[in-house]
Each structure stands twice: as C-alpha cells, then as structure tokens.
Task: inverse folding
RNA sequence: GGCGCGGUAGCUCAGUUGGUUAGAGCGAACGACUCAUAAUCGUUAGGUCGGGGGUUCGAGUCCCCCCCACGCCA
C-alpha cells in the first residue's frame, strides 16, 4: 500500500465548465483516484475553485452581485456539478479561503527573504471612471495600423499587429466604455524565475517518464528566446489575496493583491488545510511536508496543456525558492484539447455541451465512459454525437449491460434467482480464466501508467471475453442435454458480472454500484486472484435481475442534441 | 512570422530503443447462434503509413526539404 496525493487543475470560478474542461483534468484525476483507492492505496484527491482576478470581478458585476457572494454561489454550483459527475474529491476547496490567503502571503515572504522577489516600476493605463488600472485586453480602440475599430490593447485581432495601449486611437475601457484614460505609474512585484532557471531545469531533467507533452512545453519555456522570464505576481485589483509579507504589511504595495496565477497553485496545499479544518482529515502536513511524513507520498497532478507552464515552472519556483520542505510533484499528466464537432468548445458562444446540460440529458456514467475512453492523451481529440452514441450504445449497452441482462435472465428462467449448483468447470472455463487474468493484469498496468485510453480498451476487451465465453459454451444449448453443466457455466457468468462491476467501477461508478447491488455482492474486493474472485458468489447466493443498466441513445435523440448544442447558449 | 503537436484502413485511433506478411475499435459485407437491451460470436475487409530526398543489409519508426491541419506566442 502506498500513499498518493492527487490534484487536478483548479477550474476558474466564472461559470459552468464544458466537457472539454472536465476531461482535461478533473475526470482523469478522478479515475486515477478511484482506481488507486480500489487497489487499497491511501489517496488524498484535492481540487478547488480558482476565484481571484479580473474575470471573476467582471462576471460578478454582470450578475449584479458583490464578487465574494458571486464566487460563493458559483462554488456551490460547481461543487454540485462535480458531485453529479461523481468526482470523488476528498475536498473541494476555494482559492479565496483564509488558509490560502495566509499561505500565499507566507510564500511571498519567504521568497522575498530569499531574494527572489524584486520590485518593478511601470506605467499602465488607468481608467478614472472604473477607478482601476486596465489590463491590456480591457482596453479597445482603433488600430493605428489597419483602422480596425475593435483592436485590443495588446494586439489587433484584424491585422494581428502587436500593439501598445498608448498607440490606440480613441482608446476606451471595455468595462465601462469610458474614454477617460491616462497612463499612471505603478509598482509591482516580480518573481525572479530567471534566477531559478538552472535549478528548475535540473529538477525537470531528473523527472523520469513524464509525457512528451509535459516536458516539451516546459523545455520550451525554459530555453526559448532569453530563457525563463521573471513574472509579475501582483495586480491593482480589489479581489484577491492582499499583498503582505506574511502577517506584516508590504510597504509600497498597499491596495494591491497577488496575481491569480501566484495564489492559485498554492491553493493545492491550502486545500489540504481546508480539508482538515472541515473535519474530514486530521493531518495535512503528512501529505505536504516532506519533513513531516510526506516523504513516501507520490504526488500526481492532472491538467490541460495550457496549464503546464505554471505547474512545471512557476509553481516549482515558488516551492523550491521557498527553501522549505514542501512536497514537489512527482508526475504531471497533461492533456490536449477535446474539440467539439469540427471546431472548438466555446464558452462565450455556448458551443458544445456544458456540465449541467450533459447531466440533464444522460447519467454521469455515459459521459464518463465516452470521455475517458476518448481522452485527448496523445493529441487533440474530437467529440461528435455519432461517436458518442456509438460508444455508449455499443460498449455500455450492448457489450456490458446486455451481458448482465442475458446472464441473469437466463438463470432466472432456467433455474432461479440464485446462483445454481452442479456441474464442474472444464477447459473452456480454464481458458476464460487465463484470458481474463491476462486482460485484468493488462488493465492494471495501463491504469498504473495512467494510459487511460489503453486502460479503457483493455477493460472493454475484458467485457468481450464474457460474451465470447457464453457464445462458445452456449448454456442455452447445454441446458437441453446437461442442465448441471449449464449450471456451472451460468455460475461462472454470474460471477463475471460481479467481477466486471468491481474492475469497471473507476470508470462508471454508479452503474457498477447498481450491478453489485443486484448481485447482492457483499464486497468489492479487487480481483488480485481472478480465479478466486470468480467464486465469490457461492452456490445458492441470491441475486436480483438488474434493470436496464444502460439504455441506448436513439438516432432521434442524437439529432436533437446535435442541433441543440450547436451554438448560442442563452 | 516564430514555436509546439500532429498528418497511419471510410471514421476514431495504437504502433517501445529502426527488423519477419503495418494493428485495434466502430462502420460495411457474409456467416453462426437465439439466453439477452433486434443484443452476441466468428470470418472478411488489402491502407503508395502527407509528398520528395538521404542514412542503413533493412524505416511508419532516424536525418534534411516541402505541403497540409490544429494550437500557442509576440
């Protein structure tokens, strides 16, 4: 038994995430967490909402609510949806927590003590009407190059020319529309990532077997151009962690907050504290402090490729730069993007399926199965309704669901709703057990390597073995001449249902729980010994014929959904 | 423009450090079976491995050039 710390990239607070967001970190992390728990390991799986920054402020303003209230409400919404998808977080925290505020301020202090923070004076566009500095993308004006009238402060979307906000003709705030703007001087803190470049690179070079996607992105940022750049960690905003040196004020930084990218990853740690403070655990340091028991913890992070630079560079700079014994990540599993029907998912245009809508039309397991078995591991992958329909109908309904149905119904009709006795296992049974053992071991290997698509394929192949076996021994034929032998065959098949429910549970937890219940299974112990596991339900053990475990998606539904989610979410 | 990831059977994708007849699932065709959610099982399907050049006894798998798609960046 080992101890596994797992985190998935924390979703931003403003709004409901789409399936691409879900499959890019939380869902695979949940799969891994569930698998490890099923194998008897001790797991702490943490996630949270990322709440600070301008987008949250703007979304709150749009909703006409104070930003703190808005975030609290959205946290509830995201929390409910996570439950809906059966994401098994040990705790779902918030980056706006008191714990994170203190920890972030602590890290800033020790980084400053270690000479890794410097002050920079810069001029920035200030909007008097909004009472705030405006980031480049909140300023629009006419492009001096091509005359496009909605050029952003940093770039013209029309001619792609790189711009400086001061170059814009008639610049205005996109928040209020105000044109009363001026350049003001402001001071910011920068994290001296450049000073840590060699140490970070050395650390990354010692990471074995990381996905190409992860290391190639990290290497690019380390060595591209002038190398790893220092990065601002403060902003002129109200909503965020106030800039302080630990408990003490930071002269010259009054009224500023830490930039969201700085405090968000620290929330991984703070979330452990929240977990304890919520009464769900009693010691977070044994997960996070290598001097307090976290030495034997294996820490795995899950994230989309857009988050890789923060997790391979910025956050490690924070951790290593602190000089304190915090647990560093051991393995980073990163994902490409899931596209939607020939294009991108789009939150702003409402293109694609969002988490709430998905659960409105089908149970979580249907989504979990398709998404996980098509997770964009090696390259971007694509959601199409045809593929979704075929994956659900074929894999879940026909191969797995129907197997449980045909076996239990046959038994009920020829014997009773209990495991029948008689007969002896022969060659066919021995072959099935050998094949199944090999397949289960293969499945375990892929799961441990977090090769999710391959794991899904192996799992599906294990389901197919059951159908092959039935087809070969044909108990419906055997029964006519040798009912005892048919009983032995169906006894094995009934036990297969239980075994499938156990090993499939990380992918499709609800359906598996239903199947285990139908089989009146008393435990869900992992089949380390497949032969033994196939006698777990003894002769005479009662069961209940399960309801339709997975229903099929009709062509009419598919067409309707295809239409409904094509664009424009209200 | 720079960089990154890709371009393998109709579709979605596998293909370790280069090595016998390039694989899987879906779809399609044919056959078997009838217990089951008109489900299952079997067989078949022959793709210039984006294009060109090179290294090698031998390359989808290494090197160079080009084309295409997607993404990121300034």
Result:
């Amino acid at each position: 038994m080992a101890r596994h710390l797992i985190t998935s990239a924390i979703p931003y607070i403003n709004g409901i995430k789409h399936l691409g967001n879900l499959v890019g970190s939380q869902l695979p992390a949940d799969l891994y967490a569930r698998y490890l728990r099923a194998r008897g390991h001790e797991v702490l799986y943490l996630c949270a909402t990322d709440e600070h920054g301008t987008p949250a402020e703007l979304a709150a303003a749009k909703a006409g609510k104070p930003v703190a209230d808005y975030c609290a409400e959205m946290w509830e919404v995201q929390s409910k949806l996570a439950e809906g998808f059966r994401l098994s977080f040990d705790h779902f925290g918030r980056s706006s927590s008191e714990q994170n505020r203190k920890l972030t301020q602590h890290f800033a202090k020790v980084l400053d003590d270690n000479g890794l923070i410097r002050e920079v004076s810069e001029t920035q566009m200030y909007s008097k009407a909004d009472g705030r500095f405006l980031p480049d993308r909140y300023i629009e004006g006419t492009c001096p190059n091509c005359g496009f009238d909605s050029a952003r402060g940093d770039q013209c979307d029309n001619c792609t020319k790189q711009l400086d906000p001061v170059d814009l003709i008639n610049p205005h705030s996109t928040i209020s529309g105000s044109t009363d703007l001026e350049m003001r001087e402001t001071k910011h803190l920068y994290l001296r990532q450049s000073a840590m470049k060699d140490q970070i690179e050395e650390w990354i070079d010692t990471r074995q077997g990381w996905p190409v996607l992860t290391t190639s992105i990290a290497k690019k940022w380390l060595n591209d151009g002038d190398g790893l750049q220092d990065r601002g960690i403060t902003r002129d905003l109200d909503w965020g962690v106030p800039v302080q040196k630990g408990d003490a004020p930071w002269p010259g930084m009054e009224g500023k907050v830490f930039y969201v990218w700085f405090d968000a990853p620290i929330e991984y740690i703070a979330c452990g504290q929240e977990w304890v403070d919520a009464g769900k655990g009693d010691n977070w340091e044994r997960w996070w402090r290598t001097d307090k028991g976290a030495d034997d913890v294996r820490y795995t992070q899950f994230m989309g490729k857009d988050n890789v630079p923060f997790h391979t560079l910025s956050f490690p700079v924070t951790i290593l730069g602190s000089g304190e014994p915090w647990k560093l990540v051991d393995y980073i599993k990163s994902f490409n993007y899931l596209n939607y029907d020939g294009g991108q998912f789009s939150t702003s245009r409402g293109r694609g399926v969002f988490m709430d809508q998905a659960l409105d039309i089908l149970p979580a397991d249907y989504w979990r199965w398709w998404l996980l078995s098509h997770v964009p591991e090696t390259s971007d992958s694509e959601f199409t309704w045809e593929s979704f329909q075929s994956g659900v109908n074929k894999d879940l309904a026909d191969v797995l669901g129907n197997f449980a149905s045909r076996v239990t119904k046959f038994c009920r009709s020829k014997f009773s709703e209990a495991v029948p006795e008689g007969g002896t296992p022969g060659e066919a049974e021995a072959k099935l057990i050998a094949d199944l053992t090999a397949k289960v071991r293969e499945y375990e290997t892929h799961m441990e390597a977090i090769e999710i698509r391959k794991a899904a394929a192996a799992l599906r192949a294990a389901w197919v073995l059951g159908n092959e076996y039935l087809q070969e021994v044909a108990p419906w034929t055997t029964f006519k001449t040798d009912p005892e032998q048919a009983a032995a065959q169906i006894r094995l098949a009934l036990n297969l249902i239980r075994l499938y429910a156990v090993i499939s549970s990380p992918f499709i937890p609800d359906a598996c729980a239903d199947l285990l219940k139908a089989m009146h299974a008393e435990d869900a112990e992992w089949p380390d010994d497949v032969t033994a596991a196939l006698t777990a339900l003894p002769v005479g053990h009662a069961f209940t014929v399960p309801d339709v475990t997975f229903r099929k998606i009709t062509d009419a539904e598919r067409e309707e959904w295809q239409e409904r989610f094509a664009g424009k979410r209200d």
About this structure: Chain A has a mean pLDDT of 89. The first strand of chain A starts at residue 3 and ends at 8.
